Amino acid sequence: MANPSSPHPGHVVAGSDAPEKRRLRIGFVALTDCAPLVAAVAQGFDRRHGIELELCRQPSWAAVRDRLLNGELDAAHALYGLGYGIQLGLGGPQRDMAMLMSLNQGGQAITLSQALAPRVSNGASLARLVRGESQRYTFAQTFPTGSHAMLLYYWLAAYGIHPLRDVRVVVIPPPQMADNLRRGEVDGYCVGEPWNALAQSEGKGFTIAHTSEVWPHHPEKVIACTRDFADAHPNAARALVMAMLEACRWLDVPVHRERAADWLASPDYVGAPRDVIASRLLMPPQDGKAPGIRFYADGEANFPYLSDGMWMMTQYRRWGMLAAEPDYREVAGRINRVDLFRAAASQVGVPLPPDVMRRSILMDGRAWDGSNPHAYAHSFAIHRLAG
Fold this sequence. Notes:
Elements: E1 23-29, H1 35-42, H2 45-48, E2 52-58, H3 61-69, E3 75-79, H4 82-87, E4 97-102, E5 108-113, H5 123-132, E6 138-141, H6 147-158, E7 168-171, H7 177-182, E8 188-192, H8 195-201, E9 205-210, H9 211-214, E10 221-226, H10 227-232, H11 234-251, H12 254-264, H13 274-281, H14 306-318, H15 328-335, H16 338-348, E11 360-361, E12 367-368, H17 373-377
Parallel strand pairs: 1-2, 1-3, 6-7, 6-8
Antiparallel strand pairs: 3-10, 4-10, 5-8, 5-9, 11-12
Helix pairs in contact: 1-11, 11-16, 12-13, 14-15
């Protein structure tokens, strides 16, 4: 039932459809792509749908995981892959998870130390350096099963660098990346903005690749929660998705991103210089290999495609994180809550794609559409398959 007092008639906020819980604690990490959460609160999209978001900044993705699982957080801005790792019991406690929607596509990058600039200009020259020296270079990613790890590994391997043998890989929380590069503790990293732009603005690092060059319009952050929360609070979960969809749509207007850059610069959110944030937040998409970030794109950036989650699992299998072959589609179908997303999208006028799968061409020319994940996972020359 629609609330007749709602400023937008038709939005579901009352009666039997009212959110079971109205105040939601939502975790986030200090990254530019937390912008939909910030915009939802600043613009009142949450209250429009009968909920109030309490944004809770977290120091790391491990903290997001732990606080989701112990109930301190109701839901979170999370790496694509964080919920999958928990669902599969990789590197921590197993718990059934729910991914309600994607928040954005792209908008991340791979940064190298400025000390490498005289000798490295692209992936091929980095590969020559790695092969030609006895020194073992150190690269950082942000969470073992997250998108940054999988995209960094894919990029390195595409140039013949085995990410688990030829280089050392460490895990560092996003806000600490630039500091570690500055101190010389890592030679490069893959992370979300603005921590690539910050290193470059300080003259301590340079962006060698945008992750959208690895996989155009790749999935990035999501709204994640436990399955228990989604099942016990389906109306609240739907209201949260509705608020986020409105915020994502609002952010795809360039002038609105200018305002978002101001908000994100606050120490309560990202706490980086406003111009550094804006330099990548306002970067326009180009030629299908967009370095820029997509928050909405007529809903394409938000749909929880099963094939996206299945790709993550093929990479876990490729790198030996999964000892046995999972039922790729079945696992993705349980985690990605297409049902909740469709219900929310219908309420706020967001178009839906014709299929739960999508097709992409990655940097090495390989096509991915989810049709044969077993063959795809086993098709790479550089791997560490187990079992």
